[in-house]
Design brief:
The complex is a heterodimer of chains A (441) and B (307). Chain A has 441 residues and is α/β, with parallel strands linked by helices. Chain A has 2 domains: 269 residues, Rossmann fold; 75 residues. In chain A, 31% of the residues lie in helices and 19% in strands. In chain A, helix 4 crosses helix 7 and helix 11 crosses helix 14. Chain B contains 13 helices and no strands. In chain B, helix 12 runs antiparallel to helix 13. Chain B is an all-alpha fold and 307 residues long. Chain B has one domain: Orthogonal Bundle (Ammonium transporter fold). In chain B, 61% of the residues lie in helices and 0% in strands. Classes of the chains: A alpha/beta (441), B mainly alpha (307).
Chain lengths: 441, 307
């Protein structure tokens, strides 16, 4: 492709990319919120006092867009209690006290795989959701009904956020799982072409994935430029296939299925062993972390335990993130657990945590020239300030993926992503009101 | 553990700040300031110093009186003062230079809401204000380093059918404003700004090219057209004024339209207007059009389809 979408050059800071993940010992307790995915929260199906093992179902799927949740330790259910998620919303959580034995549930068995329906059922039962960070239930994404619509499977190995290397490690350490998942998708979803997109700074991962391409002629490795955000779905699809996903449409509308590489590996693991998604490889890094490393963490482990496993803090952390510094979510306290879609835990000291003071917009246009989807954050901010929802609709604030490029480059340090988020809400409310008005006529 | 900070992503920011950008513009103007002082003498430095001092001071006092946050740290007032001073002849009365600076900062910049909010370039509008009010700018200063007995600026000479030396125009050994004559120093500053990614070359290149092409179309002589291009305030305006963020278009195509439009207006005024030099007016007119150019050249959102 001769033309790439815009973005920003970020410092990579991926110093953990050569660190093989270390398995963490059993935590004393785990906290499993029933909402670790997009869609309806799971419903607790255990009660206080119940014995659970690794892989025992504790929250069952409720509704189509939802995902089941399994215990990641063996032990006793202590209680089911509401906790506050990082979003500030309350959510029921199953709290399990570990017995330290880490025994597996006896009913674990690989699923029988005979056709398309079996694949969807298996992915549903595995509890796998978009592990790149989105957390969208994977079985819903794969449930395309008419598999002839699928032209390409795109595996997201871009991992474009600074610090994070957990996907890189999956590609290096679990290449066989990814390869196996590709053949499963070829067999049951009729995938004829697979493109693995990886940002150019991951030489080892690229080499590993190229080995797969050598064995399987239907697989292609596409090296992406080191410009953030290569991992954004629309950006990835465009840079791997040249296809433009129209606003408001899904990759499938242009014949693509996009799956994160760690998601692929987790699906393969479940189909081989029957062990659902209970562990997650998490990159622990940031200026306040003593010994940055990649850790295999039982899902539900409190964040504080993971930091402790990494030698604790070298300085008092002022900010702790789920995920990378560009799109990650800051957490109010470290008692929150590692979730299914947690790929990194970052802790920053005073210097990095301090938000630079924002000053007046100087109209430099950097936000416009760096936006990967060609929006005008400066125009959106103006429309938002005057409460002009119609202008916001024209400016297409709805296609903003909140990648953070605009806020990052802004010399006046304007909170542009924040404004975009609020603009989206304003636009949504306006659209709903319009619809209601039309309905009343 | 102390309370953790909560904020909306992103959690890292580029090291580039408004202050850093303005500092780069100041650095880019240093060769021109040195050249202007060498060519026109210490009086030139005094003019620029007065403009900078009164720009910063008036912004400081305006902020204080209006109980606004102090903004002089962003260095934009220094840039305005520098550009205004460099756009004046070295023999301008100092009190007039001071009045021009106060007008540029208070009326053109601060009253419209300060940095980024003004629709017209403060330095240029300040200069135009002085041309109209004092008439003193018409008596251009002449270099003190060489013995030039000439009584007219190159533009006047050219319009009267005379000829000028191209090397003098490149080195800046001609009559004119302090910062507009030394083309080489201005180009060095421009290259620095492009290299630092403070500006993109679209506007300066199209602006200068348009003036050359249209001057050639009018005079039908490449040498004379080149003399016209190197005379007056074209280079300082194209590189430093027409690239001002607040008052010029955002997109690259918008910048091209701005450059071509300003170039065309400049030639129009130079050949058919009352004033020998039309750059300030040309840019000012294009400043007014900028919001519309932005509208016409707005980028199409990726995958955006009409609703």
């Amino acid at each position: 492709m001769s033309f790439y979408l815009h973005g920003v050059h970020l410092p990579h800071r991926k110093k953990t990319s050569d660190m093989e993940p270390v398995r963490m010992s059993a935590p004393q307790k785990i906290v499993l919120p029933m909402s670790m995915h997009i869609g309806a929260p799971a419903v607790p199906c255990v009660k206080a006092g119940d014995h659970v093992d690794i892989g025992t179902l504790v929250g069952s799927q409720s509704g189509y867009v939802s995902s089941p949740i399994y215990s990641s330790v063996s032990g006793t259910v202590k209680k089911i209690d509401d906790i506050l998620l990082s979003s500030g919303k309350p959510c029921p959580a199953v709290i399990v006290e570990s017995d330290g034995l880490m025994t597996f549930d006896q009913n674990i068995a690989p699923p029988e795989m005979n056709g398309y329906e079996d694949l969807i059922a298996a992915v549903k039962a595995s509890g796998v959701v978009g592990l790149g960070g989105a957390g969208f239930p994977t079985h819903v994404k794969l449930d395309v009904k008419d598999i002839s619509k699928i032209q390409e499977l795109i595996i997201n190995g871009a991992e474009c956020e600074p610090y994070i290397t957990s996907d890189t490690r999956t590609m290096i350490d679990k290449a066989h799982e990814i390869e196996n998942a590709i053949s499963i998708f070829e067999k049951f979803l009729g995938v004829k072409k697979t493109i693995i997109g990886i940002e150019e700074n991951k030489k080892k991962a690229i080499a590993k994935m190229r080995e797969i391409a050598q064995r399987n002629p239907r697989v292609e490795v596409k090296v992406l430029p080191g410009v953030y955000p290569q991992g954004g779905e629309k950006v990835l699809v465009y840079h791997t296939t040249g296809k433009v996903i129209p606003a408001g449409k899904l990759p499938l509308d242009v014949g693509c299925i996009v799956c994160n590489c760690t998601t692929m590996a987790a699906i393969s693991n479940f189909i081989k062993t029957g062990i659902p998604l209970v562990n997650k490889c998490v990159t622990v890094d940031g200026s306040a972390v003593k010994e940055p490393k990649n850790v295999i963490v039982p899902i539900g482990t409190p964040i504080s335990d993971v930091f402790e496993f990494c030698g604790g803090f070298s300085e008092e952390p002022q900010k702790v993130l789920y995920g990378g510094p560009m799109m990650g979510i800051s957490v109010p306290d470290t008692s929150l657990p590692v979730l299914k879609n947690t790929n990194a835990l970052l802790a920053f000291g005073e210097k990095e945590a301090k938000r630079p003071q924002s000053t007046q917009c100087i109209h430099c246009g950097l936000c416009v020239s760096h936006c990967p989807v060609s929006l005008s954050p400066v125009g959106i901010a103006k429309a938002y300030k005057s409460g002009n929802a119609e202008a916001l609709a024209k400016l297409r604030v709805d296609i903003c993926m909140e990648c953070g490029c605009c806020s990052y480059v802004c010399p006046a340090k304007r909170p542009l992503v924040e404004t975009n988020k609020m603009s989206k809400t304003l636009l949504r409310e306006y659209m709903d009101a319009q619809k209601a008005k039309e309905g009343a006529k | 553990m102390s309370k953790l900070r909560i904020s909306v992503s992103p959690h890292i920011h580029s090291p580039i700040t408004t202050q850093r950008i303005m500092l780069d513009v100041i650095i880019a103007l240093i060769p021109t300031l040195i050249a202007g002082t060498v060519i026109f003498g210490l009086r030139a430095l005094a003019v620029v110093a007065v403009c900078v001092a009164f720009s910063v001071l008036s912004e400081f006092i305006f902020n204080k009186i209006c109980k606004k946050e102090l903004t002089i740290n962003d260095l934009s007032a220094v840039v305005t003062g520098l550009l205004l001073g460099l756009g004046l002849p070295a023999n301008v009365p100092l009190w007039q230079a001071a009045v021009g600076a106060v007008f540029a900062i208070v009326v053109v910049k601060c009253l419209f809401g300060g940095i980024g909010q003004n629709f017209a370039n403060p330095a240029i509008t300040g200069r135009v204000f002085m041309i109209i009010t004092f008439g003193s700018l018409a008596n251009a200063a002449y270099p003190t380093v060489v013995d030039t007995a000439s009584g007219a600026t190159p533009l006047v000479t050219l319009s009267e059918g005379g000829s000028v030396e191209i090397t003098d125009l490149i080195l800046g050994l001609r009559g004119g404003a302090i910062g507009e004559t030394c083309t080489i120093a201005l180009i060095i500053g421009g290259i620095y700004l492009v290299a630092r990614k403070v500006i993109v070359p679209h506007t300066p290149v199209t602006f200068i090219a348009t003036v050359f092409i249209l001057s050639f179309a009018v005079t039908l002589d490449a040498y004379t057209a080149l003399c016209y291009t190197l005379s007056g305030g074209l280079f300082i305006s194209a590189i430093f004024m027409a690239t001002d963020y607040s008052t010029t278009p955002l997109t690259k195509w918008g910048k091209v339209i701005f450059g071509v439009g300003a170039g065309a207006l400049t030639v129009l005024i130079r050949f058919w207007g009352v004033y020998p030099e039309g750059i300030s007016f040309a840019i000012l007119l294009m400043n007014i059009l900028s919001p519309y150019i932005d509208k016409w050249t707005a980028k199409k959102p990726f995958g955006g389809v009409a609703k």
